[in-house]
Amino acid sequence: MRWWDSEVGYEVYLRSFADGNGDGVGDFPGLAAKLDYLAWLGVGIVWITPFYPSPMRDFGYDVADYVGVDPLFGTLDDFDACIAEAHRLGLRVLIDLVPNHTSDQHRWFHASRSDPDGSMRGYYHWRDPAVGGGPPNNWVSHFGGPAWSYDEGSQQYYLHLFLPEQPDLNWSNPDLVREFDGVLEFWLDREVDGFRVDVAQGLVKNMLMPDNPQRFPVTPEMSPRQVFGCYEHRYDLDQAGNTAIYRRWRAIAERYGAMLLGEVYLRDNNPNLVSRYVSKQDGLHRAFYFAPMHTPWEPSAMWSTFRDALDAAPRDFSWALSSHDDPRAPTRLGGGELGRARALAYSVLLFALPGLPFLYQGDELGLEEADVPPEQRQDPVGSRNQNPADGRDGCRTPMPWAPGPAGGFTHGAEPWLPIARSDDETVAVQRGDPGSILHKYRELLAVRRALGDLHACELEWLTDRSAPVIGFRRGDCVCALNAADAPADLALPPGQWRMAFSSERPAGAVFESAMTIDAPEGVLLARIPRSLG
Ligand code: GLC
User: Of 178, 306, 362, 468, which has the fewest CB atoms closer than 10 Å, so is most exposed?
Assistant: First the structure.
């Protein structure tokens, strides 16, 4: 067993978690003061989104210095104090490593751009215009438009799979590979427990830079995501060379007992492709598998998603229903009471699967997407494209800690995004109400921790694709989710089974041979040892 095998993770979107200095943006002092809440909730691992010096064009995912802290978030001392406080509370900390690209304000890019013959030129991807002019190939940016921008000075194009202000690093360059080892070591020496690796599928490119095959025609009303999906990313993503980098980093991480968790976002969510990043146990330790966020609420589709995922990676995926990049689960799953009930029921299933589940801040409050008025939206994915609804602001609004206009998030300036939450959605109100959704999540985490077989035993399916209930067994635990529209029965393995957790009803009832599961409802059952039964 490794230290992460029995834990639940929690994503902190730092800008929106807690503001300690009153400037309207979350920071390390704010986070440090709230870590006891995360310990109370029962999570074991905290992933903190980027905090490095940055022009904030992509809110910190445009890094201008890999070994510092942006003053907006505090100082290196504040960082150290936050890590120390987390460790004091028994929490592990993963920080976000952003190796695919830097900011165009990184000194490496300044050097690379200003001197076409210099040694730093090869840290990035520079190419001549295509014959006849224009970008060197047909690659597109995730965030809209071509993946190439022209540099007047050197009359070449540079590659960026995201914003033009986020030039892609050249991972075929051995100097960069060596230099980056020092970045990992810098933070590991400051006692972080590992890294969430941003865009882990993207680092290495095919250096011949051929056009990607186009699968569908692009039309003007398409969102950047849709345009990106019109191409088969044969040459820009998921190149075989990625593995060598993660093998190298794994060796570094193992020296510190640290973990590597990849964001492996592949368009078609093919589990066999994602599993290659983790399956040989010599690269990333865990990889987020995003299909559960995109699978419709429909039992056979959900069952197939998980069966295929676990066939590909029996224990090495990481699961999440929401993130700072995707619409919040309750909204996606139908909204209102129904959406919240489904999200909790779905979490029961994710938390019982082999692998490492994550909550995104506010999941535990049942938060839906926030309605951010157009003039307050900030995400460049929305503002730089024709369709502002593509932006990710609705899932990034600040945590509502307590009733009041600033939601207990800040004591000073206007929050950087509106809070727009009701009193019932706040931590303070829910913490004081034992019947709240927050207490339900806390109970789920406690039950998961207590049921040892959920950390150790193989998964055995109890249902198949045609059933309304998705059910499986792990040792002396059974987990079931009814994702159909009406209550449905589940046949139980022999023995007596005690309800350890239900998303809908109190624990405690005992079942034998079968039980009826509400719609929606997620349950965890524990077998009663025969001598006591
Ligand atoms: C990842 C991050 C996202 C960011 C992008 C570019 O997908 O999760 O927020 O915009 O990488 O760094």
Answer: 178
